[in-house]
Amino acid sequence: MAEVLVGVDDYREFEAAAAADGVDVGRWLVEAGRQRLQATLSGLGQLWQDVCAELDNPVLVSERELQCLRSARPRAVNDGVLLLAVPDLRARQILEVSLREAIEKVLARRLRVGVRVAFTVDAEVPAGPFTATPEPSAAPALLEEYAELIARPEVARRLAEVLATAR
Question: What domain of life (predicted)?
């Protein structure tokens, strides 16, 4: 089991919450960690769908690149690196060479912090598009915002420049 240093005040707060739930503090911390992990993975799914929606422009990205982008699955974030699983080496190569920079720029803008991406091949990843369960009101708002944004000629031009430099 990993050891974690916890401040005295934090420990007392955790201990009180655990006592209120009727469990020991160790068990309470494990469950809190699991819940946090699940929330993080769920948030990654929605973030990845948003990134894919933003880059999903057949004028600027080839159909093959879009298929690879849609097939990627977020696995984890560690030390500022988003790990994406892809179904095969071809998808990995296409994303690394053609779309890495564009993906990183979209992530940086959305998260307001620099994020790198790394790709891993996982044969269990389905080749079809990734879908996370979206929040009911988030997806329509994003699509409307994206449609309005991409309709502006200066934005479409800038997006084309970003994607062109990413290749």
Answer: Bacteria
